[in-house]
Amino acid sequence: MLAEHEAGEPSAVTDHLAASGTPLSSAEIRERMSGNLCRCGAYNGIVHAIHEVAVTEGVTVR
Amino acid sequence: MRPFPYMSAPDVATAVREAGARPSTKFLGGGTNLVDLMREDMERPDTLIDITRLPLTEVEELPGDGLRIATLVRNSRLTAHPLVRTRYPALSQAILASASAQLRNMATVGGNLLQRTRCLYFHDEAAACNKRSPGSGYDAINGFNRYGAVLGTSDACIAAHPSDMAVAQAALDAVIEVESVRGTLRIPITDFHRMPGDTPHIETALTADELITAVELPALPVAANSRYGKVRDRASYAFALVSVAAALEVEDGTVSAVRLALGGVAAKPWRAWEAERILLGAPATEETFRLAAAAELAPAVGRSKNTFKIELAQRTVVATLRQLLTEGSAA
User: Fold this and answer.
1) Chain A contact set for B92 (CB, 8 A)
2) What is the pTM for the complete model shown?
3) In chain B, residues 162-201 whose CB comes closer than 8 Å to chain A
4) SS3 letters for B76-93?
5) Who among B86, B97, B99 is closest to A18 (CB)?
6) CA-to-CA distance for A9 and B63, rounded, in angstroms?
């Protein structure tokens, strides 16, 4: 998921499809994880964990 | 699940020849819908012809700025394609609004066009359904019909087409390329899906021995200013109650080009010809948008639990056009 975001691929909540470098917000994480683990890929704990990993990997988060 | 013969086609000619030699084959692409339906015993192909090794996986630029999308292009690759994001943003948005990341990674463009309705009664073996068992009846019409269609329905069936992608393609004048032993056909997407009439089990212009090989998007300058609006019961990973694909070009306050299609409201991706007719050449105002939306939905017939869709579809048309007017496209 982080790799797709880093490659500039948009999601359903991305405002500008053609732009790259969209910051990885909680809304972006939730939408991109939607459908993982049935519908439960966007629980708070999972979103926080992804945020944490994204920061250590140098991803621009918001 | 029933046992079934399986074969992998080495080339298109073999795929269509083998399909032509049997009465009811199915081609296997991503399998995200077909395999589920086979597990439910609702699809019973006499042979499954795997086409995933065919060289139909590229998005090509056509002379004059169109795109040719080969049938096996995965939804996720199509939506991320730079030329789709800039030339046809409504198509990118429509795909992103559909299913989940894993499903989009598997699902193919051709398969998306052929996916079956998610009507609860179609999937319930205990229910009467003219689409599943012709002539058996229509429990859906008097039952829990919240997800049912309101336009182009018949006394036999009110099932809605589930695709988001195809709604954007219907607005964008897509043409479907079909191959069989009889040669190549090019079918405009608006002629591809059928209205239910008395034969709701026949859903497209395709016969079992015909293979979708590509979807072509013509050069369409207005498409650069396009959006897809989707209203659903859950914010993500849900089918549309109502959706709208719209493209709008305004010159001196007047609509100079427009494309409009609706999803979730009909048995097919619904091209809003009447609304387009009213919009073209008219002032680009909220009032015109409302008049056009009302005219398009005028023939709609609501059932006990889906009458809300008639108003919701109009509001979604107006909101999407307003957004195109004030904010531009999603690109």
Assistant:
1) 10, 17
2) 0.96
3) none
4) HHHHHCHHHHHHCHHHHH
5) B86
6) 26
Q: Do B96 and A30 touch (CB under 8 A)?
A: no
Residue B263 contacts residue B163 (beta carbons within 8 Å): yes
Quickly state the pLDDT bin for B43 (edges 50, 70, 90): very high
- A9-31 burial code (b ≥16 CB/10 A, e <16): bbbbbbeebbeeebebeebbbbb
For A10, name the nearest residue in chain B, comparing CA atoms only. B80
pLDDT in tens, B161-176: 999 999 999 999 999 9
pLDDT in tens, B53-86: 999 999 999 999 999 999 999 999 999 999 999 9
Which of B88, B246, B266, B25 is CA-nearest to residue B163?
Answer: B266
To the nearest whole angstrom, how far is the Cα of A55 from the nearest Cα of chain B? 22
Expressed in angstroms, the distance from the first to the final Cα of chain B is 44
Q: What average pLDDT does this structure show over B195-222?
A: 97
Strand, helix or coil at A47?
helix
CA distance B157 to B129: 8
* pLDDT band at A41; cut points 50, 70, 90: low
Strands (DSSP E) found in chain B: 6-8, 25-28, 47-50, 59-62, 66-70, 175-180, 183-188, 211-217, 226-231, 242-251, 254-263, 270-271
Q: What DSSP letter does each residue of B146-203 carry, written as one string?
A: TT---BS--SS--PPP--SHHHHHHHTT-EEEEEETTEEEEEEHHHHBPP-TT-TT--
């598997």: which residue's tokens?
B106
Helix (H) / strand (E) element for B36: namely: helix B34-39
- B153 backbone φψ class: left, alpha, beta (φ>0; ψ -120 to 50): beta
Least confident of A28-42, B190-204, B239-253: A28-42
Q: Which ipTM did the prediction report?
A: 0.89
Do A17 and B85 make contact, defined as CB atoms within 8 angstroms? yes
d(CA B203, CA B195): 7
